[in-house]
Design goal:
The chain is built from five helices and 26 strands. It is an alpha+beta fold.
């Protein structure tokens, strides 16, 4: 009887211990799952911070990435070593969080990125001031939005704005105050195509497809590729769930086309040359695309004429391909001279175009012979590019793949390539078209908005 009672009592105790052990094991598993869930990227994303160490990161500073890349390799390695040595004194990993003490060089990805979608969680303290550099350019701002001493420079408007943009420009200040109270985690979602940046903070849209200015030289676009940098400035900041997804050509073009499209009308139906004139027999139409036939050319143009307008077009180049956009073309003659201008459509590779060095006013996006565009933003040969052209009075602006590569006033042009006059540059209206030069350059999704 006593033996039975002893056994029964011990059996109940054993079951209770086993149950507690099971609960403890379950709790540990849940804890591990929570730790693993942090820094575990969603589908399609890559974790920039692995939750364990500083792999994939180097030290960095507010430094023009173009100049960094232009440094001799040994000097660049020497600079990296100095920055990284300093960085490691102030950055650590704590409980799966990337922690900075408020000092030191910035955490900078060793890899450069072009178009991307970025997720970042952060938590900071009162009076801290930080930010996220995109392609090495400052910055998506992180404020103490309660610090009255900085209200005069925008702290009261909250975090997420492109604070280094010029005063009054879109994106400099966030659209709404979206910061959470101190002690809580904030979540960024940042979308970048070209120099166009959209930012959500804690699920609220704070920057909408704004042009991010190049802090180092505002006359140039930001680099086509560059690192992600987490800035350190004045107080502890913790980061986690730093995930990135690189955006391909088709998606990038779709994003660009989705913005500001109100008022555009298609001027090419993708099936035939209805509404077009000129040597159309020199061009083919297939699958919604018009392509200049090899060893053919000439300017085909809309029957309708335009004064001030915005045109959108996608184009694809073969190696060495050459064509152009006819702007305010009179209908006859060489559009580069008798029209307002020919905007170059040209493979940046040049090899099939010429063996000699081109005049800067001949490169892609340039107003041929009059005003030079910036290089470095064209997609690889065989991929579709998205271009928007704004013509207003004597001014022309060209945005290629989300970056402004030309912004000029042709009324001020006096120095012409080869000293050739451009009698049509002051035209106030004309046709829009394509100026073929023997190469199978393709166009699609052609639309125009009258201003």
């Amino acid at each position: 009887m006593n033996t039975v009672l002893f056994t029964h009592v011990h059996m109940k105790l054993f079951m209770r211990i086993t149950s507690l052990t099971g609960l403890l094991a379950f709790a540990l598993l849940v804890g591990c799952a929570t730790i693993n869930r942090a820094n575990n990227p969603p589908a399609g994303f890559t974790a920039l911070f692995n939750g364990t160490d500083l792999a994939g990161w180097r030290g960095g500073d507010t430094f023009d990435h173009r100049k960094y890349l232009d440094m001799p390799e040994d000097k660049r390695a020497e600079q990296d070593a100095k920055w990284t040595e300093d960085m490691k004194k102030h950055w650590s990993v704590q409980n799966g969080e990337f922690v900075n003490d408020g000092n030191g060089k910035y955490a900078t990805t060793t890899k450069d990125y072009g178009d991307f979608e970025l997720f970042v969680d952060y938590k900071t303290v009162a009076k801290a001031d930080s930010g996220i550099y995109l392609r090495g350019v400052p910055q998506v701002q992180i404020w103490d939005f309660t610090e009255t001493a900085k209200f005069s420079i925008g702290a009261d408007k909250g975090s997420g704005g492109l604070w280094n943009n010029s005063p009054g420009t879109p994106g400099k200040d966030p659209l709404v105050l979206a910061d959470k109270p101190f002690g809580e985690w904030n979540k960024f979602r940042i979308l970048m195509v070209g120099s166009r940046v959209t930012v959500w903070l804690n699920g609220k849209l704070v920057v909408d497809h704004a042009n991010m200015e190049n802090y180092y030289d505002r006359k140039k676009g930001i680099p086509a590729k560059g690192p992600i940098q987490l800035q350190t400035h004045g107080g502890e900041i913790r980061w986690r769930n730093v995930f990135i997804r690189e955006i391909g050509t088709a998606e990038a073009n779709k994003i660009l086309a989705s913005k500001g499209g109100t008022g555009f009308q298609s001027v090419f139906n993708g099936k035939d040359f209805s509404g077009w004139s000129g040597p159309v027999d020199n061009y083919d139409i297939q699958d919604g695309t018009v392509t200049c036939k090899p060893k053919k050319g000439g300017t085909i143009f809309t029957k309708e004429q335009y004064g001030d307008f915005v045109a959108r077009v996608e184009f694809k180049l073969p190696a060495g391909g050459n064509n152009g956009l006819a702007i305010r073309y009179p209908g006859t003659g060489d559009t580069a001279y008798v029209g307002m201008c020919e905007l170059q459509v040209l493979d940046e590779n040049y090899e099939k175009v010429t063996k000699s060095k081109l005049d800067p006013r001949q490169v892609h996006g340039s107003a041929y012979g009059m005003a030079a565009a910036q290089l470095g933003y064209q997609r690889p040969v065989g991929e579709w590019n998205f271009q928007e052209v704004t013509v207003k009075g004597s001014k022309i602006k060209v945005e290629l793949n989300g970056v402004v590569i030309l912004d000029t006033d042709l009324s001020t042009a006096t120095d012409f390539m080869a000293k050739s006059p451009h009698p049509g540059k002051d035209r106030t209206s004309g046709h829009f078209g394509f100026a073929g030069h023997n190469d199978p350059v393709s166009f699609r999704n052609v639309s125009i908005k009258k201003l």
